[in-house]
TrEMBL record:
Catalyzes the reduction of 1-pyrroline-5-carboxylate (PCA) to L-proline. Residues 163-267 form the Pyrroline-5-carboxylate reductase dimerisation domain. This is Pyrroline-5-carboxylate reductase. Residues 4-99 form the Pyrroline-5-carboxylate reductase catalytic N-terminal domain. GO terms for cellular component: cytoplasm. InterPro entries: 6-PGluconate_DH-like_C_sf, NAD(P)-bd_dom_sf, P5C_Rdtase_cat_N, P5CR_dimer, Pyrroline-COOH_reductase. It comes from Litchfieldella anticariensis (strain DSM 16096 / CECT 5854 / CIP 108499 / LMG 22089 / FP35). The gene is proC. Belongs to the pyrroline-5-carboxylate reductase family. It catalyses: L-proline + NADP(+) = (S)-1-pyrroline-5-carboxylate + NADPH + 2 H(+); L-proline + NAD(+) = (S)-1-pyrroline-5-carboxylate + NADH + 2 H(+).
Amino acid sequence: MASQITFIGAGNMASAIFGGMIESGYPREAITATSPSDEFLAPLRSRYGIHTQTDNRTAVVNADVVVLAVKPQIMQSVCAELCETIQARKPLIVSVAAGLPAETLERWLGGDLAVIRCMPNTPALVGAGAAGLFANPRVTTDQRELATQLMQAVGLAEWVDDETQLEAVTAIAGSAPAYFFLIFEALEAAGTRLGLPADSARRLALQTAYGAACMAQHSDQSPDQLKRNVMSPGGTTERAIQVLEDAGLRQTFLDATDACAKRAREMADELGKR
Ligand SMILES: NC(=O)C1=CN([C@@H]2O[C@H](COP(=O)(O)OP(=O)(O)OC[C@H]3O[C@@H](n4cnc5c(N)ncnc54)[C@H](O)[C@@H]3O)[C@@H](O)[C@H]2O)C=CC1
Ligand SMILES: O=C(O)[C@@H]1CCC=N1
């Protein structure tokens, strides 16, 4: 029988994961999601056919896995609310919250719990997620396997041995879809500025991004070689790449990902000391 999974918080990240799980065949009747407002939950019930609950405690009573998917800033009060019920059953805890250390979550929930910290991303919704996972020492091999299966149902799952490596995962996977969406916006605007209708520019830019990602994934050649294959000497691409290099695009990505990882550490410091 499928494990009963309860998502505490049913926002962007939770719905991307359970939406992707259902899409890949996970039984919807084994999934429960919570939110304080039933107005918010009603469309999720009709769209996904999952169970919903406005009461977090009731929602975890029979759960084998509890996925904590609320904002990091309210996690402590949510844990305080759940602590007693969680301690009565001791389900596997999976947190997707940015920054929050496993040890802090375990402490907020009363201790002696198997906790997996997961840093997923929203393309999970279309089965193309990329997630990093870290297990505390209480997580059993079976629980690790279960978490791997759940996350692989919605994309790539990579385990890390050192919890601080999740900061890097946040920088290049958790937050990174937004970087690409920014690039799509910029390419659409560029196409429009150069004379294409906006809808056509968007289709061309998105298909090109999709094609480049598919090609890089299936090719034996490095991204650098694939890039060179597009750059005819003295041609158009060479000019464009030169402008991007001269503008310091590589360094900008290093700075942006440093800022992202730094913010994850700050959040751990701010929230973990409570
Ligand atoms: N959005 C993203 O791309 C990613 C988000 N995350 C993490 O996922 C977590 C959730 O983020 P999002 O889904 O983006 O936020 P969101 O705001 O879309 O979802 C949070 C949900 O929590 C619900 N909520 C608020 N108070 C609650 C309570 N007391 N009990 C139960 N539910 C409550 C809200 O109704 C909302 O639906 C955060 O901790 C974030 O760090 C991690 C990776 C990627
Ligand atoms: O921006 C955030 O804090 C969350 C975590 C990773 C993606 N979104």
